[in-house]
Amino acid sequence: MVKERRNKTPDTCADFRDLLGRHDIDAVLIATPDHWHGIITALACKSGKDVYVEKPFTHNIREGRLAVQAARANSRVTQLGCQVHASLGYHKAVEIIQSGALGTITQARAWLSSNQAPQGIGKPEDGTVPEGLDYNFWLGPAPQRPYNPNRSHFKWRYFWDYGGGQLADFTCHMIDVFLWGTNPGFPRRVSAVGGRYALEDNAETPDTLNVVWEFDPPQSQSSPLQLIWSHTECNADGLEGRSKGLKLCGTQGTLIVDYGWFVHKDPGGKVIQEFKEEGNPVGDAGIRHKREFLDCIRSRSLCSADIEYGHQLTTLANLGNISHRVGRTLAWDGETETISHDPQANRLVQREYRKGWDLAALGVVDPPATNRPPARRNLLEPCCR
């Protein structure tokens, strides 16, 4: 396809490190499964490459912080691939939030609804590795497992070794406006309840999940606020008559946001403004989002979804999944990026590595690797350009 369009056959290679060693490449786009995102991002930054990395930013929190440090230490331009961030609707929604028109925001609720019942992704038997797939390299740092078709293209996201399910897959899109608009800092508590309730398949991540993050008062108000996530893969009838969305509830108004659309209401529910973006809002946003990355490569400016912001977004999803997996509320210390007084949960801030594929072996950190997540730098305020 590239040859037909560009009259040039692109180079191919099986090991990303071959690309990172080339001096004729300025930037990379990382679209691997999640369990490789943080590692390749850090190594790309260390090799002097600018990075566009698909969401979610990283498979675990510690690798996210290491990648941020690598980007800052090497002055790299970075962009998280949450392309809806560049949509006109999202920009206008954030302007409403930051104007104070909603008053004191006490609660925001994000949701995602679909119906894969009853078979879900199915239960295929373990099998032979397909020809052309270097399964050992595909696994990389992940545990050695028998090859299963569901642990391969796309469906890998439903297994803890490689992804974080619907929560990790969609929070970077659905809670972007909340984080961007309110700038609440770190959550102080996180609680999640859910499971694989109804789908009859071999997936591991929840088909039904509710997560609550509680934040201290942001600079714009004196009261705390909470963010709630709900998803189901067993019923497609979502909240507010939409399969997905974000609802911010304030003392002076309500804002409901979806891709390319929002409605702003007064406290009694009367519509103040409704906005619907014409054309292809997600596709057009994707073009603008990538164009911003290319422009920032030239100007050396920070992108609006810079790596620090991407890490903050993804950390919320990772904390929700950790709370679900250990079955209790977590107290999060955002300064040290550790879970307080809970060694079992704190171990899930990072992961165990397959022999020969640990962070030191791959060159992400200098041996010996530390077991404690590095101290957090000050957050960059999410920005709109």
Described by the principal axes of the CA atoms, the overall outline is: globular
Question: Describe the biggest sheet?
Answer: 10 strands, mixed
Mean pLDDT: 94
Instruction: Quote the beta fraction.
Output: 15-25%
CATH topology of the domain at 88-278: Dihydrodipicolinate Reductase, domain 2
Task: Detail the poorly predicted runs.
Answer: 372-385
Helix/strand-derived class? alpha+beta
Strand order of the largest sheet: 11-10-9-8-4-7-6-5-12-13
Provide a count of the helices.
12
CATH architecture designation of the domain at 88-278: 2-Layer Sandwich
How would you describe this structure to a colleague?
The protein has 12 helices and 13 strands. Strands 11-10-9-8-4-7-6-5-12-13 form a 10-stranded mixed sheet. The radius of gyration is 21 Å and the shape is globular. The chain has a domain of 191 residues: Dihydrodipicolinate Reductase, domain 2 (2-Layer Sandwich), CATH 3.30.360.10. A hairpin with a 5-residue loop joins strand 10 and strand 11. The protein is α+β, with helices and mostly antiparallel strands.
